[in-house]
Design brief:
Elements (H helix, E strand, L loop, with lengths): L6 H8 L1 H5 L39 E4 L4 E4 L3 E4 L5 E10 L4 E7 L7 E6 L8 E5 L4 E3 L10 E8 L5 E8 L4 E6 L3 H5 L21 E4 L2 E4 L3 E6 L5 E10 L7 E8 L9 E6 L6 E5 L6 E5 L5 E4 L7 E3 L6 E4 L24 E4 L6 E6 L5 E8 L5 E9 L4 E5 L6 E8 L4 E8 L1
Antiparallel strand pairs: 1-2, 2-4, 3-4, 3-22, 4-5, 5-6, 7-8, 7-20, 9-10, 9-18, 11-14, 12-13, 14-15, 15-16, 16-17, 18-19, 20-21, 23-24, 24-27, 25-26, 25-28, 28-29
Length: 425
């Protein structure tokens, strides 16, 4: 469940400079839910882990006027060096293909405001960024120069255990054929399989078995790789040498089946290096390999113009958490000295979606004067009312002036503040 919605708008309203200087409370961080990249698609990065349906894309909400995304979540990021940063992906300007993001130390110091022009790296799949080094790390090869990458990733089915495997580029589809024996596998053709999948992890870590904790390639598995040009290749893994031995090598053999078919396999070796230090991007059509250092960046932005995918380098030790203090004093101390409205049980809004009026239920034990402010996704104040409330009552707000869309309501007085998102139909 996304815990911090439309905070970007709130920060614009309340004064970002003041808010960012407050210390975030990370008590119990080790018990927070860590966010991971999906292995189903490059489009599902860790920052989208709490996405629901359109217009909610996890780290931000779609703006129907600009066709971009407005950031509505604050993240805590454990860096490669073990330090922590707070991060706000403030906006994706889709038309210009630019990301605006801010990050700082947890106490608000050392703040960086980055305007990243994605089009400058449009020939790459992702442009990576180092929060620990305050720099762009654009080390990936050209997008159209590789079909598969031998890498390390976290396997969800194994409790996010780190495994070695193959991940496919976009526009590459894969069919997996499990033969009854190695001889049948070696002579298999595309007639033996008919189902291709677009899952980037169709090969994944399924190409081997563990024998006394040693990786042994399965010679009964055959992978048929359909690349972007439509040509089909046959692929098998032949041997493995551990990265902990100082080598980190995987042997492969590949054979083109369409176009001008090859009569026999072409053998090759993919070298990840000591302790699996690098990712090996390679092409099925030519003997081209690119070794890319994996451990020099924390977050990666997909370069496609209308993508919202942002990935975390979790396999190298980066940890990503959504900051959970959604209500009350969002950036201030976790414990308030006055009364608070802090949870769903304490405050709720209905109906959702709303039309002319919206009602706010509460459990305040004493009378209060509250300010109800409604803002659109650009931070423009749309409704501003002061209401008196008593124990056991509801607050009612006229929203008949609002156009259909998504809004943020701020409910506050001198003692507390709460934020709720709602939709007008």
């Amino acid at each position: 469940m996304k815990r911090l919605r439309l905070l970007a708008v709130l920060m614009l309203i309340a004064g970002l400079a003041t808010q960012m200087n407050a210390q975030l409370d990370t008590t119990g961080l080790s018990g927070w839910d860590q966010m991971y990249n999906s292995m189903a698609s490059w489009e599902e990065g860790a920052f989208s882990a709490h996405a629901t349906t359109h217009p909610d894309y996890g780290w931000g909400t779609y703006n129907m006027l600009t066709h971009g995304l407005v950031g509505d979540s604050i993240y805590i990021v454990k860096l490669l060096d073990g330090n922590y940063k707070r991060l706000w992906i403030r906006e994706k300007k889709s038309i210009a293909n630019r990301y605006l993001f801010w990050y700082s130390d947890l106490d608000g110091s050392n703040e960086m405001q980055i305007d990243l022009a994605i089009n400058d790296y449009s020939t790459k799949h992702f442009v990576n960024y180092s929060l620990s080094g305050d720099s762009i790390v654009a080390t990936q090869p050209e997008y159209n120069s590789w079909d598969l990458v031998l890498t390390r990733f976290l396997q969800p089915e194994l409790g996010y255990y780190t495994v070695t495997g193959f991940v496919a580029n976009e526009d590459v589809s894969i069919s997996v054929y499990s033969a009854p024996d190695s001889v049948t596998a070696a002579t298999a053709t595309i007639a033996d399989t008919t189902t291709f999948t677009d899952s980037i992890a169709a090969i994944g870590n399924g190409w081997y078995k563990l024998d006394n904790m040693s990786i042994v390639p399965l010679d009964t598995l055959v992978y048929f790789i359909k690349v972007a040009t439509g040509e089909i290749y046959k692929l098998q893994m032949t041997y493995f040498e551990s990265g902990y031995s100082g080598k980190g090598r995987v042997g492969i053999r590949k054979q083109r089946l369409t176009g001008i078919p090859q009569n026999e396999f072409v053998h090759d070796t993919l070298v990840m290096g000591s302790f699996y230090a690098g990712d090996v991007h390679f092409s099925m059509s030519v003997d081209t390999k690119y070794l890319v250092n994996r451990a020099n960046w924390e977050i990666g932005f997909k370069t496609a113009q209308f993508s919202s995918s942002i990935r975390a380098n979790s396999v190298s030790g980066v940890e990503l958490y959504t900051y959970p203090n959604a209500d009350g004093t969002i950036w201030g101390p976790a414990v308030s000295t006055g009364p608070s409205i802090s949870g769903v049980s304490d405050l709720s809004i209905y109906p959702v979606p709303a039309t002319d009026h919206i009602f706010i239920r509460h459990r305040l034990s004493t009378p209060h004067t509250l300010n109800l402010s409604v803002y659109d996704l650009t931070g423009k104040l749309m409704v501003d009312r002061t209401v008196e409330t008593n124990e056991g009552t509801e607050m009612q707000l006229d929203i008949s002036s609002l156009n259909p869309g998504i809004y943020m309501m701020q409910i506050q007085n001198s003692e507390f503040r709460a934020v709720r998102k709602f939709t007008v139909r």
